[in-house]
Amino acid sequence: MTDIAGLATRRAALTMLDAVLRRGDALDQVEARACRHLELPEDKAMARAIAAETLRHMVDLDALIDARTRQPLADDAKARTVLRMMLAQALVLKTPAHAVVATGLELLSGGPRRLAHGVFGALMRGDPALPEKPTLPETVAQRWRDHWGDAMVEAASIGLAKAPPIDITLRDPETAAHPGGTELIPGHIRLSESGPVPAMPGYAEGAWWVQNISAALPARLLGNGAGRSVYDLCAAPGGKTMQLAVKGWQVTALDLSEKRNRRLSENLERTGLAANIITMDALRWQPEAQADAVLLDAPCTATGIFRRHPDVLHRISERDIADRAQLQAKMLEQAAAWLKPGGHLLYAVCSLEPEEGEAQIGQFLDAHSDFLINAVTPDELPDGLSPTDEGYVRILPHHLAELGGMDGFFIARMQREN
Ligand SMILES: C[S@@+](CC[C@H](N)C(=O)[O-])C[C@H]1O[C@@H](n2cnc3c(N)ncnc32)[C@H](O)[C@@H]1O
């Protein structure tokens, strides 16, 4: 029997959605396994796009489905997930309805095909539209409203509407070899085009790497290394390692993941930069000497990168936030001990949760009287972004919104006194 065209791609998307919604896995983590049967890169990209767009618009897709079902479908019913996917394809990815129906119903083979067919058909006859600003899941909206206010939730919803623009860090700010765009801060460009990165001018020669402007700030805040040593903790795939190496730091880059460290190696090779790479759990590492600086890009809930990874909106719970905060506190404790007196400790997370940011550093400073905040100054940041009263960098979805926004981040720079 020949398979329906595109069915394997939809199966892979369904596997990804199941893993995210039922098991709380990250989309990135499950993508390779879910797509292992797909040969063509464009099929893999399509499977990822179906899963990601379903998650981006899920609350509004559910509202459409609920308006057309007499008995509400269970939240985790396969028919609901398949209908969400079918609608995301038809309304967001503009896949022709016949292809959506043929593959969608086949996914429900032996299940409620007639129901799904009926609901999808009735909805499409009504010419449905999704709101311009996708609705955030209520638990997330409520949490962010409590922390940051209504305007932040509104900006997050606008930001969620589409994947963000691509930012790049130039190896040499004088280089001419890049695709062109808007300079956000010297050496960092927001590209005016999207598309396959490896084919863009300068990429293969190592003239630049992809790095959201928010993620580019922590390493910048350590300044020039002039041969001094830095421990780059949780370093892979190496965006910050490369920035530090360019600035003359002697970098020791440590990460738990062998696979991600392989990407770090490839990135260093492509850009012609060097670092000492260590694959190990940061909690078990024991360096031989203290360093002049430590950059801790701590593992976090990653809720700040919800535009590129909308799965975080559906799988991160209060419990996850508390667990991550606990891990970060342990890592901070270690990092602090590995720093020479007078050295700088740079802490960063791509999270919009204060437990992983302001509260984390507040507790650290309370417990470490030998560490002081080294306040970030406005001239160290892109126009449109200012340090907080405490001297931290807190990046929210409204920052640089007119240029396409920034990833949510928290950054603190501290100095060890003795
Ligand atoms: C936010 S990413 C790092 C991004 C990287 N700093 C960059 O700029 O390209 C977090 C990293 O933490 C690593 N990680 C998580 N837990 C770790 C641990 N216990 N020890 C070391 N690395 C860990 C992950 O493998 C992941 O690569």
TrEMBL record:
Active-site feature positions: 350
Binding site for S-adenosyl-L-methionine: 234-240, 255, 281, 297
GO BP annotations, alphabetical order: regulation of DNA-templated transcription; RNA methylation
Domain of life: Bacteria
Entry keyword annotation includes tRNA-binding: no
Record keywords, A-Z: Methyltransferase, RNA-binding, S-adenosyl-L-methionine, Transferase
Domain SAM-dependent MTase RsmB/NOP-type: 144-417
GO molecular function, one term: RNA methyltransferase activity
EC code: 2.1.1.-
A Pfam family annotated for this UniProt entry: Methyltr_RsmB-F
Annotated family: Belongs to the class I-like SAM-binding methyltransferase superfamily. RsmB/NOP family.
UniProt-recorded name of the protein: RsmB/NOP family class I SAM-dependent RNA methyltransferase
